[in-house]
Specification:
The protein contains 16 helices and 14 strands. The chain has 399 residues and is of the alpha/beta class. The radius of gyration is 26 Å and the shape is elongated. Bound molecules: ligand C2E and calcium ion (2 copies).
Length: 399
């Protein structure tokens, strides 16, 4: 089996030479070029397993090179190298991924042999790097057909996990969010990110939502008619096409003797609404009937400012990607603070999700954030465990 090959592009010949030597000592067949024209010429002559690209070059920068590589549908795995700060490196990596390139990772200059080896492995390995394979296997592993989902619905294989939401100031439990899981007969528990998009695409999301609503309202009515004020339910923006839904949900609430005011509908991907005009009418009807409405994952591309102003929300949920970074990123802290202030200035309750440690909870409280949710408080759990959790906390607080 031939050794794997690597092509290095760096305008600094000395730096390029150093990387070449390191790669050769790892067992690669390595060569370098210092100019973009040489680089593309070489790629036409030979296919390489790995390409390393310097981000900052005088003629054509690394980001532009990667765009051109994407246009050529390059199959080589790419390593981005640079002396720039990590934020720029990360942005370059994201940009390359969004262009559909296969990125092994970024590496800061000056490059050490060990950091190179961690990214590219050994040149003599004929296998691909394990995590690259895992990533590509993911799709096949979870290939779900409409029939699979229909069967799962018929067999009632969808179950719910509940994650508590507390008040930052007092620590009191204010509610639970219902999160769906698929209890698959062969694969075990399958997470929603895997099957919700499929359900949305094959037109089964409404049937799934109906089952979830019914199951969770039944659970909520049994255990928490008075003591826990809120049940949060996720609703796909693609489901907002049936004006009748407001009446159906009201009827379900009265069947279980739950006041609509206790139910919070969390809406993500507001940009994916099929019919924005109908959605606005439907959401307004839901609010008129007393339901609460929350804009989920706020701050990500999916929940936009335009929708925040246009739709009748009562709550804003700060996306967990910011909250989880609160301890190590001042940028994340600025975003969190701005969202809390924005929410309050619009008269909304603010919930932060993804609270993973005490320091973050304390920080959120100091900013005046109303509610918090996250692994630090509790992981999502079965309905039974959630009931015990409430009991224990009550005892803990009164003891
Ligand atoms: P989401 O609505 O943003 O739900 C929060 C996700 O964050 C949940 O993942 C939860 O388990 C996870 N999480 C909570 N606290 C923490 C934390 O401290 N750290 C970290 N790293 N993660 C935390 P899950 O259960 O995998 O759900 C993923 C997404 O699937 C949900 O994101 C929601 O968009 C969707 N989803 C879940 N249940 C339903 C449903 O019944 N209907 C619809 N349409 N979508 C659902
Ligand atoms: Ca949610
Ligand atoms: Ca969320």
């Amino acid at each position: 089996m031939a050794n794997r090959s690597i092509l290095i592009l760096d305008d600094d010949a000395a730096a390029a030479q150093t990387i070449q030597w390191m790669a050769e000592s790892l067992g690669f067949e390595a060569e370098f070029v210092t100019r973009p024209d040489e680089f593309f010429l070489r790629l036409e002559q030979k296919s390489f397993d790995i390409i390393t690209i310097d981000l900052v070059m005088p003629k054509l920068d690394g980001v532009e090179i990667m765009r051109l590589l994407a246009e050529r549908e390059t199959r080589a795995k790419i390593v981005i190298s640079s002396g720039m700060d990590s934020k720029v490196l990360e942005a370059a990596q994201r940009s390359a991924l969004e262009h559909g390139l296969s990125i092994l990772g970024v590496i800061s200059k000056p490059i050490s042999k060990e950091s190179l080896r961690l990214l590219v492995g050994d040149g003599s390995e004929c296998d691909q790097l394990p995590w690259v394979e895992k990533q590509s296997a993911y799709g096949e592993l979870f290939e779900i057909t409409p029939l699979d989902l229909q069967n799962a619905l018929d067999r009632h294989e969808f179950i719910l996990a509940y994650q508590p939401k507390i008040e930052c100031k007092s620590g009191l439990t204010v509610g639970f969010e219902a999160l769906v899981r698929w209890k698959h007969p062969d694969r075990g528990i399958v997470m929603p990110d895997v099957f919700i998009p499929v359900a949305e695409n094959v037109g089964l999301i409404d049937a799934l939502t109906e089952q979830i609503f019914e199951q969770s309202l039944e659970w909520f009515s049994q255990f928490f008619p008075q003591s826990i004020p809120q049940l949060s339910l996720n609703i796909s923006a693609k489901s907002l096409v049936d004006i009748q839904m407001a009446d159906d949900l009201s009827a379900l609430c009265s069947r279980y003797r739950i006041a609509p005011e206790c139910v919070v509908l969390e809406l993500t991907e507001t940009s994916a609404m099929v019919d924005p005009i109908l959605s606005l009418a439907l959401l307004t009807r839901l609010r008129l009937k007393g339901f609460q409405l929350s804009i989920d994952d706020f701050g990500t591309g999916f929940s936009s400012m335009v929708q925040l102003v246009r739709l009748p929300f009562s709550e804003i949920k700060v996306d967990k990607s910011f909250v989880m970074q609160a301890q190590n990123s001042s940028e994340a802290r600025s975003v969190i603070k701005s969202i809390i202030d924005l929410g309050h200035s619009l008269g909304l309750l603010v919930t932060a999700e993804g609270v993973e440690n005490f320091k973050t909870l304390d920080y959120l409280n100091s900013l005046g954030c109303d509610l918090a949710q996250g692994y630090f408080i509790a992981r999502p759990m079965t309905g039974e465990a959630a009931r015990n959790w409430v009991k224990q906390r009550k005892q803990g607080i009164s003891a």
